[in-house]
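Whiteboard transcription, Tuesday session. T.W. wrote the structure tokens on the left side:
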């Protein structure tokens, strides 16, 4: 089937990322996922299922499945592949298409593939939702199409696990997780769960998916989402909120095979699952081009008023004698990165290096690691650089966010104003 469904848009912010992380059991110790001012703050890898969910739910299954009854649909498997890093706030756009339909005798499996892009058109997530539809016979292919990691069997090796993580879910886990967008009443309304044959509402399969992936990420991925290439899982049994999940993991090269056991009932909730880690080369992104990657010697980027300001700052900071420039670097001793979003939702980065050599200004992420990263809108950066507001007041007003060494914000004002005088902004 070549028909494309969508696009659907998903707007989110840092609060939504933290809420999702809490929904899959993150705690106050997981600052990079729950605290927006942490220097490494960003989405958990499995947040990637959230923007795609509305596209999957809006798909008109009745158009290609005879006598389709949504009450007979079961979410059987999930595959998630990570592309370019998703921004911490913005609008993501998702389109979907049917990847495969497989006749299983007593029903059929419909595989929906979704592609999610950021405002610049860069792919950040690819999902495959495999849905088993009970009672639909003689529909689809007799065998599934092979699609690499998305269809891998992921059988655990015949040895004890290399690592095990146990986590007790909360009685309110499903009530919290649903706030990220999966509002199926089966997971909150006892009347609906009883129709499905459950005494109490069950936990979302994608919540268990997120909890298990978090265990693998923290155990083998250094708690850094950039180390995850893809995740695949099969949902074998339901989980009740409040039950204890045990994730058993086996490392096989760059693949972590895992399964999730419900300890109270000794049943597998997730099986045939794996996380593929990024290889040492690190080159695993889906996207072949990234419109946000403006790295280069200059600082001009169309669509940003900040670009003109930073161009002037570049000319100012890189002017003067070598002695003057070296003295400026010795005084500041810091690298600032600016992640700026314009009113159209596009994002770009610049950096001011007053720590190395004679100082420099350029586009793109700072080489190495910035001492302070300033997250700000395009209009607010212009206001800050023009001297019409100071960074401390803008920070307290929530107009800028600073990751890294917070006290460097005090030096930032001096840097911008010194450059402003010489550039006559």
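and on the right, the sequence the group agreed on:
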């Amino acid at each position: 089937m070549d028909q494309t469904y969508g696009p659907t848009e998903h707007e989110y912010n840092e609060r939504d990322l933290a809420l999702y992380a809490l929904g899959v059991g993150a705690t106050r110790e997981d600052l990079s996922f729950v605290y927006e001012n942490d220097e490494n703050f960003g989405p958990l890898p499995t947040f990637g299922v959230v923007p795609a969910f509305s596209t999957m739910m809006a798909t008109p299954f009745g158009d290609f499945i005879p006598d389709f009854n949504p009450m007979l649909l079961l979410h059987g498997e999930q595959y998630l592949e990570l592309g370019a890093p998703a921004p911490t706030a913005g609008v993501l756009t998702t389109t979907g298409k049917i990847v495969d339909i497989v006749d299983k005798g007593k029903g059929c499996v419909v595989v929906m593939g979704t592609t999610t892009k950021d405002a610049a058109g860069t792919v950040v997530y690819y999902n495959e939702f495999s849905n088993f539809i009970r009672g639909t016979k003689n529909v689809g292919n007799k065998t599934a199409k092979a699609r690499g990691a998305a269809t891998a069997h992921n059988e655990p090796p015949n040895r004890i696990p290399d690592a095990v993580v146990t986590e007790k879910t909360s009685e309110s886990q499903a009530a919290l997780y649903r706030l990220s967008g999966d509002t199926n009443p089966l997971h909150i309304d006892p009347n609906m769960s009883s129709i499905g044959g459950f005494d109490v509402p069950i936990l979302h399969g994608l919540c268990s998916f997120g909890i298990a992936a978090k265990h693998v990420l923290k155990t083998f991925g250094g708690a850094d989402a950039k180390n995850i290439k893809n995740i695949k899982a099969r949902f074998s049994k339901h989980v009740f909120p409040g039950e204890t999940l045990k994730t058993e993991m086996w490392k096989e090269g760059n693949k972590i095979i895992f399964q999730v056991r419900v300890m109270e009932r000794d049943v597998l909730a997730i099986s045939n699952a794996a996380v593929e880690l990024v290889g040492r080369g690190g080159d695993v992104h889906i996207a072949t081009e990234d419109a946000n990657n403006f790295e280069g010697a200059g600082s001009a980027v169309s669509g940003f008023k900040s670009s003109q300001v930073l161009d002037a700052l570049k000319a100012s900071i890189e002017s003067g004698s070598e002695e003057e420039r070296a003295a400026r670097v010795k005084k500041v001793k810091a690298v600032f990165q600016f992640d700026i979003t314009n009113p159209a939702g596009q994002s770009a980065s610049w950096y001011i290096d007053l720590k190395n050599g004679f100082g420099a200004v350029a586009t793109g992420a700072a080489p190495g690691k910035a001492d302070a990263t300033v997250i700000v809108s395009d209009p607010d950066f212009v206001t800050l650089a023009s001297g019409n507001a100071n960074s401390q007041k803008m920070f307290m007003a929530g107009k800028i966010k600073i990751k890294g060494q917070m006290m460097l914000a005090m030096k930032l004002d001096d840097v911008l104003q010194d450059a402003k005088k010489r550039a006559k902004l």
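Someone added at the bottom: The chain has a mean pLDDT of 86.
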